[in-house]
Amino acid sequence: MRRLFLFSFFFASLAVLALDRDKGKTHKTDPGGSYVEAMVTIGNNNCGYLLRLSDGQLIRPTNLPKKFQHYDTKVLVMYDGAKEITDSPCDVQKEVNLTDIRTYKAKSKAQGKF
Q1: What are 68-109's pLDDT values in tens digits?
Q2: Is-above-0.70 flag for pTM?
């Protein structure tokens, strides 16, 4: 009986730790620190890689990792340091520093916003 209790306690502890792994990650544009859905796109006028957020806004990341530099890649991003751009030939108004990026796979076609 004691082994069963210890075994159950061990797995319950693992479950709590797994749920808490993203705690502490923040980004200044979203007080909840949650990820934002985006799609990698290429800007015109040699603007390089841009991110189109799910609300349609275009942002330019300063540090997009090479493995995500592919057109139409769906990603989840966290960022900070949104800096307004006024003299850009691109349709971008903000330049951001990515704090985290992950590939995004929609669970169903109806769920995706892109």
Answers
A1: 999 999 999 999 878 887 777 777 778 899 999 999 886 655
A2: no
For 34-58, the pLDDT digits (tens) are 899 999 998 887 788 999 998 888 8
Instruction: Compute the 3-state secondary structure of the chain and give helix, strand, coil in percent, each to the nearest 5.
Output: 20, 35, 45
Task: Kindly list the domain boundaries of the chain, sorted by start residue.
Answer: 25-114
- Can you tell me the distance from the alpha carbon of 12 to that of 6, in angstroms, rounded to the nearest whole number? 10
Q: Which fold would CATH assign to domain 25-114?
A: OB fold (Dihydrolipoamide Acetyltransferase, E2P) (2.40.50)
CB 47 within 8 A of CB 90: yes
Predicted pLDDT at 43: 83
Terminal alpha carbon distance of the chain: 53
CA distances from 11 to 6, 8, 22 (A): 9, 5, 19
Task: Of 96, 91, 98, 105, give the one whose Cα is nearest residue 47.
Answer: 91
